[in-house]
Write a structure and sequence with these properties.
Distance between the termini: 33 Å
Helix content: 25-40%
Strand content: 15-25%
Number of helices: 14
Bound molecules: pyridoxal-5'-phosphate
Number of strands: 15
CATH architecture of the largest domain: 3-Layer(aba) Sandwich
CATH superfamily of the largest domain: Type I PLP-dependent aspartate aminotransferase-like (Major domain)
CATH class of the largest domain: Alpha Beta
Order of helices and strands: HEEEHHHEHEHHEHEHEHEEHHEEHEEEH
Strand order of the largest sheet: 4-10-9-8-7-5-6
């Protein structure tokens, strides 16, 4: 029986059956189980920041797994301390960190940290953005503004009020001195790679300051060089109170992080939170390899090349290109993203039909100029096939 059929019979239905079965990768290139080669322009959803099988990642992970793979949090280990110090050194203000295994767990930590901090002041509700995505566990899901994945699992244990993303006046109207925290993605990822209007994050920071609410920047998708900055909020000169990270941090190994700035980072007391696997030595070694081997200058130059190349494509199906850095959505004039994804795969490119009318590109941050040029050159033909 083929792999797809076996997948379908063994797995729950939540993913459907993915269209391609991957076997191995090298850099931006991946091969499926039949040996067909693709250029990977989705990178495991902005995760494989160093590409596939990067020698530094392979070496770091192999060495660590052969030395000490797990300690639990009953014992500390050097890789976690090195990683924490490294991350904190990349930020603009003093902070403290908690390591988790995934994005949603990073947000659970943020949620509990904010709740603990806010309840001391008698605060009672969160604010988050419509169409925002913060994860699938109940805390993170309660903050997620996508009705289709949220509503059937409610009601949720806390009051979350949703506002349209990018609308500073709506924030002003909704946030009072009772608000615990505002959860925002600096650019919305799952909503379709949607950057906010200029000045929005600064306005959000000001409103948080005037109401005393915490600003939580969910940078699970936007951080670790994805936008051409280590952290997307740095481009806007806005420092959040809490920052969450995951996807690109481990370069494919599972790790998430919740960073609390200033006093907020001191809110948890012994016993308040934990994770058996969080910050395990192997994932920390992987993250250190990622941070040591990324080149933001390269990211910016290939990102500009990709964006300019796609913007120069003149095709009736292509409406616009939006996003930041190596994190773009090509927006279509008709809801044919699924057909674009399929035509791209047939042409040897992995892309992601993110919304009915938006195709996401988030290649490894080591993608080369030649690989970018190859996608750009094929894009008109892919669009024509998708439109047919
Ligand atoms: C992917 C994502 C999450 C959830 O991360 P998981 O590792 O899938 O739990 C949360 N927030 C944002 C912005 C994301 O892109």
């Amino acid at each position: 029986m083929n792999l797809f059929k076996r997948f379908e019979e063994a797995f729950m239905g939540n993913y459907g059956v993915p269209p391609v079965a991957l076997a191995r990768g090298e850099g931006t290139r991946v091969w499926d189980v039949d040996g067909k080669e693709y250029l990977d322009f989705i990178g495991g959803i902005a995760v494989s920041s160093l590409g596939h099988a990067h020698p530094a990642l392979v070496e770091a992970v192999s060495r660590q797994v052969a030395t000490l793979a797990h300690t639990s949090n009953l014992f500390l280990h050097e890789p976690e301390v090195l990683l924490a110090e490294k991350l904190l050194g990349m930020l603009d203000a003093p902070a403290r960190v908690f390591f988790a295994n995934s994005g949603t767990e990073a947000n659970e930590a943020a949620y509990k940290l904010a709740l603990k901090h806010g309840r001391r002041e008698g605060r009672s509700y969160f604010v988050a953005a419509e169409n925002g995505f913060h994860g699938r566990t109940i805390g993170a899901l309660s903050l997620t503004g996508k009705k289709a994945i949220r509503d059937q699992f409610g009601p949720f244990p806390v009051d979350v009020r949703f506002v349209p993303y990018g609308d500073a006046d709506a924030l002003k109207e909704t946030m009072t001195g009772d608000c615990i925290a505002l959860f925002l993605e600096p650019t919305q990822g799952e909503a379709g790679v949607v950057p906010p209007p200029v000045g929005y994050l600064e306005a959000a920071r000001e409103i948080c300051d005037s109401t005393g609410a915490l600003l939580v920047a969910d940078e699970i998708q936007s951080a670790i060089g994805r936008t051409g900055h280590w952290f997307a909020h740095q481009a806007d000169g806005v420092t959040p109170d809490i920052l969450t990270l995951a996807k690109g941090l481990g370069g494919g190994l599972p790790i998430g992080a919740c960073v609390g700035f200033g006093d907020v980072g001191r809110s948890f007391e012994k016993g308040d939170h934990g994770s058996t696997f969080g910050g395990n030595p192997v994932s920390c070694a992987a993250a250190l390899a990622v941070l040591d081997n990324l080149d933001l200058g390269h990211v910016r130059s290939v990102a500009a090349r990709l964006r300019d190349g796609l913007e120069a494509v003149d095709h009736p199906l292509l409406e616009s290109v939006r996003g930041r850095g190596l994190w773009l959505a090509t927006v279509l004039r008709e809801p044919r993203a699924a057909q674009v994804q399929e035509a791209a795969a047939a042409a040897g490119f992995l892309v992601n039909a993110l919304q009915p009318d938006a195709v996401r590109l988030a290649p490894p941050l080591v993608v080369t100029a030649d690989e970018v040029d190859a996608l750009v050159a094929s894009f008109p033909r892919i669009l024509t096939e998708a439109a047919a």
